[in-house]
Amino acid sequence: MAYYAIAPLMCVLPLIQNELCMHLFLHQAWGGPTKNQYAVVIPPDSPNGFGGTAANDWVITDGLDASRSNTVGRGQGFTINNSLSKFSFYTSFNLVFENGRFNGSTLQITGVLPQSANGEWSITGGTGELALARGIAKFKAVQMSSLSNVYELTLHAYYSPMDSCGNPVATCGESWKVGTTQDGITV
């Protein structure tokens, strides 16, 4: 018996796709009283700090000044220095929403943080209200200091609320078995 089952997804209505646009600010601090990024691997004798790894729990707000803005969520993940010759970090984090409509939902964001401090990351997934998310997160450094950076984020994504399809042919669970027939379809 197979360890998986595949069934066609037939919806009474087309699967709904919601478009999401957000304007947020990511506060990265590797020093000072608001430190939210810690080095966990510091390789000795590597060129340009290659392989250096940090864990992060960045604050994400709806305004530039974190002390006068609403905290929307946290950017929880890691960065790895991935270049032997230049400042470049592979970054992967979950944007974990902490309040409002998206409370408890996440967006998975990944990409490279280059020395220019401007660019795009991929939105490769999501959970909760933001299930099956995909899109881009554009970022631009708007404040830089010796202890911290603030990035302006523009998120543009599409997602499919999991309850947006009528009655699926099959559901995961006890009644869904490989090789059984449900509504005339063998799964």
From TrEMBL:
<keyword id="KW-0964">Secreted</keyword>
<comment type="function">
    <text>Dirigent proteins impart stereoselectivity on the phenoxy radical-coupling reaction, yielding optically active lignans from two molecules of coniferyl alcohol in the biosynthesis of lignans, flavonolignans, and alkaloids and thus plays a central role in plant secondary metabolism.</text>
</comment>
<dbReference type="GO" id="GO:0009699">
    <property type="term" value="P:phenylpropanoid biosynthetic process"/>
</dbReference>
<keyword id="KW-0052">Apoplast</keyword>
<comment type="similarity">
    <text>Belongs to the plant dirigent protein family.</text>
</comment>
<protein>
    <recommendedName>
        <fullName>Dirigent protein</fullName>
    </recommendedName>
</protein>
<dbReference type="Pfam" id="PF03018">
    <property type="entry name" value="Dirigent"/>
</dbReference>
<dbReference type="GO" id="GO:0048046">
    <property type="term" value="C:apoplast"/>
</dbReference>
<comment type="subunit">
    <text>Homodimer.</text>
</comment>
<dbReference type="InterPro" id="IPR044859">
    <property type="entry name" value="Allene_oxi_cyc_Dirigent"/>
</dbReference>
<dbReference type="InterPro" id="IPR004265">
    <property type="entry name" value="Dirigent"/>
</dbReference>
